[in-house]
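Box S1 | Example of a co-folding query
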Amino acid sequence: MSAASDDRAAAPRQRILYGRRSARPLRAGRRETVERVLPRLRITLPQGEDPLDPAALFDPAPDGLWLEVGFGAGEHLLARARARPDAGFIGCEPFVDGVAKLVQALDADGIGNVRIFMDDARNLLERLPESSLAGVFVLFSDPWPKTRHHKRRFINAPVLALLARVMAPGAELRIATDDPSYLVWILEHLRRADAFEWLARRPADWRRRPPDGPATRYERKAIAAGRECIYLRYRRRDPIRVR
Ligand SMILES: C[S@@+](CC[C@H](N)C(=O)[O-])C[C@H]1O[C@@H](n2cnc3c(N)ncnc32)[C@H](O)[C@@H]1O
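Box S1 (continued) | Returned holo structure for S-adenosylmethionine
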């Protein structure tokens, strides 16, 4: 792994979002729900380079704001939002089919504390105010196992710098993966990131999913296929370590 090439690959304004935006046309019922509900939930970034005011997205203003990057079909985000109706949740997911599933579930369950950013999470992170997030979930982000694709991995030095800025001191960053090579990459990048402290004390801490949230769809498939899933919890240091 090369930190330098990894940094260059993720430099702002040279970003490319890899992966699918859609798989197939939405079924009529789901399309109708998305057209009716999504405009109320969808986050549009302010013009120019102005920051986004995340509290203004919710009414009433939320007691804490959580972000999930790449929520897939949204089951984890849905469960979190249901468990904390007083808090606000932002989900980033460019894959339309996944967004449609979440929107339909939010509508069916009458859950009103989720907002959706249908683009690259890095574009949102850049526009969030400093210390605005109480926690961030990056669960099973694409592992891009081929060496020539490593620069596409979501966890990298520039993203960790963005997260360090927008996460409040003491906020938790939760990362999960089932890919051994991505795991090594993640551990190595977080070890070098002075803003984050790994909270694990014993192997059970990374071998067992924290009990306060459900398994994701990808995670269930990984376990069914016999792959081990690893769960990493980091805290945003206060103050940031100086070396
Ligand atoms: C392997 S899937 C995992 C989905 C879900 N977290 C789960 O565990 O079931 C990774 C997801 O991240 C999304 N994704 C990839 N790059 C992203 C980015 N830069 N910003 C936001 N989402 C992204 C993809 O569209 C995909 O749905």
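The longest strand covers residues 167-177. Residues 1-11 have pLDDT under 50 and may be disordered.
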